[in-house]
Amino acid sequence: MPDKHSDFTPYELKKGEEYMNEPQSAHFRQILLAWKLELMEEVDRTVTHMKEDASNYADPSDRATQEEEFSLELRTRDRERKLIKKIDKTVDRIEDEDYGYCDSCGVEIGIRRLEARPTATLCIDCKTLAEIKERQIGI
């Protein structure tokens, strides 16, 4: 993930605390919304940069270099746009009280795994199994 960890504070588990209670849900909602905001700010910076730097270079090499640079930025922004959608879906799961449980087997994904990858939908065992299957099939 991008720099969301710069002001990140790990969740302090309390003994006997129920999994994915309101404080935990709020913790992850805050992480996800901060991450989304950061991504959206990056998109805005890219748009501004491309508008300001859009030059019509006479030299074909300079023009090609700029086009390649813009193309790379746009691909990056497209990945970030898809990530923003995934973040929105994850926030919806929090609102629906469906967050933090594996889509495959239903077990708790775990606080630390979710802090490392807040949009995770599989527990580590199911994710590992899915990756092994992917490698075997060669998808």
Layout of helices and strands:
Blueprint: H1 22-53, H2 60-95, H3 111-116, H4 124-137
Q: How would you describe this structure to a colleague?
A:
The protein is mainly alpha-helical. Helices cover 63% and strands 0% of the residues. It contains four helices and no strands. Helix 1 runs antiparallel to helix 2.
Brief summary of the model shown:
This protein has 139 residues and is an all-alpha fold.
Can you give keywords for this protein?
mainly alpha, 139 residues, disordered N terminus
N- to C-terminal separation?
A: 24 Å
Radius of gyration: 20 Å
> How much helical structure, as a percent, in the residues?
55-70%
List low-pLDDT spans.
Answer: 1-5
